[in-house]
Amino acid sequence: MKKNIILTLAATAFVLTACEQDFLERYPEGGTIRQDQYEKLDNQMEGSVRGMYSRIYTMGGSSHDEFGKRSIDLWGDILASDIAVTGKTYGWLYTDEQMLTTNRTGTIWGHYYSQIHNINSTINAFKNSNNFLSVLEEKGWPSEMTAAGMKKAQIDSVYNKAAYSNALYYAQVLGMRGYIYSQLAKFYTPVRESERFLADSLGNFDCIPLYLEDNMDTAQPLSTSAVVYNQAFSDLEMSIKLFEEFGANYTRSSKLELDREVVCGILALAYLNECVYRVGTPLYSDHVDKALANAEKVINSNKYQILKEDRLLTTGFNDVTDPGWIWGQDVTIETSGGLKSWFGQVDIHSYSYAWAGDTKVIDGELREKMQDWDKRSKWFNDGKANSIYMGCPDGKFFSAQNPHSTDADDIDRDWLSDDVFMRIESMYLIAAEANWRLGKYTQAASYLTTITDQRLDTANNAIGKLAYINFLAGLTSENTLKEAIVYNWRIEMWGEGYGLDTFRRFGESRKRGRNHISAPGNEIKPKETYYNFTIPSSESTYNPYLRDTKKN
Q1: Low-confidence ranges of the chain (pLDDT < 50)
Q2: How many separate domains does the chain show?
Q3: Which domain holds residue 295?
Q4: What is the pTM of this model?
Q5: Distance CA 330, CA 254 (A)
Q6: Paired sense of beta strands 523-524 and 510-511, if any
Q7: In terms of C-beta distances under 8 Å and separation of at least 24 residues, what long-range contacts does 130-134 make, across chains too?
Q8: Domain for residue 230, yes or no?
Q9: CA–CA dist 309, 458 (Å, integer)
Q10: Assign residue 531 a region: left if phi > 0, alpha if psi is -120 to 50, beta otherwise?
Q11: Which residues, 6+ apart, have CB-to-CB distance to 244 below 8 Å?
């Protein structure tokens, strides 16, 4: 699990990305590698793809609450109040606890756009220096050749081993660009019911600039949310097709890398997040269908297993080799962020801010919703041994090195626990929600109970078993089923970055627990202004299309 990984020179070059203020510059100093520099590198595609992956778990700043994808996951779960911050001795994550998006918008913007610039550079160089795409355009897909009666040897004469390899590199790069644009569209499109969005459709809300490989050297105007989402869908769908056509024998070297199932999972969630803006239009059911179809592709691949009840409290969500993890990071000595990491912020068994008193715990109101049958309640510390740790997720997330003790002499000071990005359970929840949205309640309940059957505490729990029978009986009702789906998004995926998505997608107000240090007990609504991410003011300095104009 802890292999030492050293990036190639090419990867390192791509890691050194520009800060958020200068990503629009043609050749940022100390930043993105130039086209002419790229073309002089050996093994160009492999090097750039390695660098692309390293940017998932790194950010340019020095703040201990900025560590790439898992920090953005953490911010969103706190903003949605699924996670309560209960101490501010050190101050990290306090603005998120206050539900302020203004402190994060520039970081998110710079993090994603620096990656977009690097990815576009890779795509552009690939198109200029590789004949794979021209062969694809001229000769067609391998499946089309097979349908036309061509034998494998004939197809191999058109697409040799190098072509197959390049096709899979291209699939990964397109998949990552699609992922990033789906994230940007999600953050910078307001909640549908908010005053900023009003009656506007995705097609007329000006969202963000869209940078592609052919326009990245000049500033771009704002594209609508529909255009940005459609670009994400296009990239992700093309990535999946490339994997399906050229990746029959493909095995990724680590779970950090994209493959067909990861990209299908990304696309499924993107369609689910986008579909709520299509309510009342023909595209609504079409996009819900696509969310469902892509989630089912992952489920039906049979590559991943739902975590069983007997292992629910023993995994620690700290090992990327877990059979339920679809996408994640194998944290090594070279890639560990130390205190600047998920476990450095949240785990009370690591040398962390949580261990030192700034705990991140389950929202009190959410915990009270947990039912007698649900073994996941044991994911959260009961406070009996030490009340300061009450509600901490030390039954779900705990150090691989030190799963039990909080004594200073035992504490994990290596921070080598792995990071989860996507689990198979999220695909079942997407399938359950999509079926519910389509009015297929029996199918929705079936996907949901595939998870909850493994969350029933079977040990000496007669009251819980009866409560579970009552829970199942209620899944025939549209409203009760919806509540069960929302509950399971919030509990099953707690701390994994789905909280803000769920909050915004369902659009319903909720009450914050009394254990928050900011606005305890307050009712919060996703449509409120403070849940809208706005374009950072620094962008207007470098983008003439936004200069001296009113931000949307």
Answers
A1: 1-34, 37-38, 40-42, 550-552
A2: 1
A3: 9-310+423-542
A4: 0.92
A5: 8
A6: antiparallel
A7: 130/45, 130/166, 132/163, 132/166, 132/167, 132/170, 133/170
A8: yes
A9: 8
A10: alpha
A11: 260
